[in-house]
Structure formats: structure tokens, C-alpha cells
Amino acid sequence: MRRTVHRHLGKVVAGAAIALAGTAAMVAVTLPGTAGADDTGGTNTGARQGAQGQAQGEGQDQAVEPGVVQEAPADGDKGTGRDPLTDDELTRVEQIALNQQLFRSSEDVDGDRGPQRLGIDLAEPEADELDDPSAPRRADVTFYDYKDDTLVIKTVNLDTGKVERTGTERGVQPPLSRSENTEAVKILLASPLSAGLKADYKDATGKELTSPDQLEIDSMVFRAAPGAQPAALDKCGEHRCARLFPKALNGPWIDMRHLVIDLSARTVAELDR
């Protein structure tokens, strides 16, 4: 049965305070090397040091076109010392890190060939380089491979143009990228569990909700806590799962805390209440 307009709007307005609180929590969980705070039904986890570049990477979620791995471009503009990575350096290190083997063996959040780029960040200098003004600049490039739920971190030496280290981990879930947020909304909108979101959106705006472009999305990674959620979410943490904090464009926040999107399995489940 459809809820009344008054009830929808009350839920939407109340969602503003909830989502703002969630946004404040996200500031904490996206800081480098910090752990997320526990939340009802699971744990919202932050990035480890190797995945701390989400903020820099957000404006560059466009991955290399499927089926194409380009040659690394010329050096272009270079930073020095601990200067932030330049646009040319960001482009160059991503293309160096994304070799043919990784590209062909992995999948992104859409299921296309090639891993999901999460972020690029200036790497910390080696211990014996801390006082060396001529120490090489390095960048950590972080990918997530949805084919086998693996976090891949490649350290690229900007001076030599070579990958110095490659690390892989499972069960490590950095903050979600903009592309992942968008895909999470698409998965949600295709699910019957989106009925409440669509109804609240229409009550708040007078329009039908059909596309992620109609929303501003904040998100938090969701980790399963034994016995605190339905069995459908037990793999969250091993899988990449999201809780969304949607906001109508130029409108109110909408409370969707009770839903979790499993991006790895492409399913939606409702938390036990």
C-alpha cells in the first residue's frame, strides 16, 4: 500500500539530518590509513594507505576505453618533491600501471574488461630517502578487480616510468569511487526494493526517478557483522558493498540506510531491523 504524501515528506526531511551525519562520518573513513566507525548492521571501512587517493581520482573516473591499453605518454608537466601529482603525471602513471595482463584478466564495476580505478596518490618516500631532495617521485595507483574481488595497488616510479611494486589484497575495501556510486544507484533502481526511494523522490520533486543523474550520492562501504544482517549480505567485506545517502538534485536527502547494494553480486538486500 502506498504511504501518504505527508509520511513520505517526513521521511525525506528526516533523512537530511541522517545523511549529513553520514557525510561527517565519511570524512573520517576516507582519511588515509584510518579505519571506519561501526554502524548498524555492519562496519563502514576507510581506505588503507595505498588507497588514499580517492579524492584526487574522483574527477578522473573515466577508465581507459575497453579493449585499449595505450602506450604511456611522454613525461609532460612534472611536479617536484612532495608537490601534488600534475594532470600529466596522473595520466602517465595510470597508463603505466594498467598493463595488458591486468587489463585482460580483470573487470570493473560495470563488468567491462579492465579493473576499476579507485585512486592515484603520491607515494611516501622510502625510509632512506626522507632527507634526500633528489629522491624519485612515486605514485600509488589503486584498482579494484571485480572479477575476483581483489584490491590491486601498483607503485610507479615517475623518474623511471616503471612499476616498482605490486600488491594485492582481499577483504580490503577503500571508499567507493564516483563510478561505483553511480552503478550502485543503477542496480538499486532496477530492484523492487527501490520503490520507497522512487516514491519519496516523486513526493519531494513531483518527478519520476529513473536515472542516477537525478541524484547526488554519498556512500559508505558496508561490511557484514555476524548475525546483524540477512544472509544475503554475509559476504559484504569480501564483496564490495555500499550503503547510499541519496539527495535529490537541489532537493532534500532521502533516507536509504536500510538498503545495501552488493556491487560484486549486483544485488540489493534490506537490513534486518
UniProtKB/TrEMBL annotation:
MF (Gene Ontology): copper ion binding; primary methylamine oxidase activity; quinone binding
Domain of life, source organism: Bacteria
Keyword Signal appears in the UniProt entry: yes
Keyword Signal: yes
GO terms classed as biological process: amine metabolic process
Region Disordered, residue ranges: 38-63, 101-136
Signal peptide feature range: 1-37
UniProt KW keywords: Signal
Compositionally biased residues, Basic and acidic residues: 105-115
Compositional bias annotation for Acidic residues: 123-132
Protein name listed in UniProt: Tat pathway signal sequence domain protein
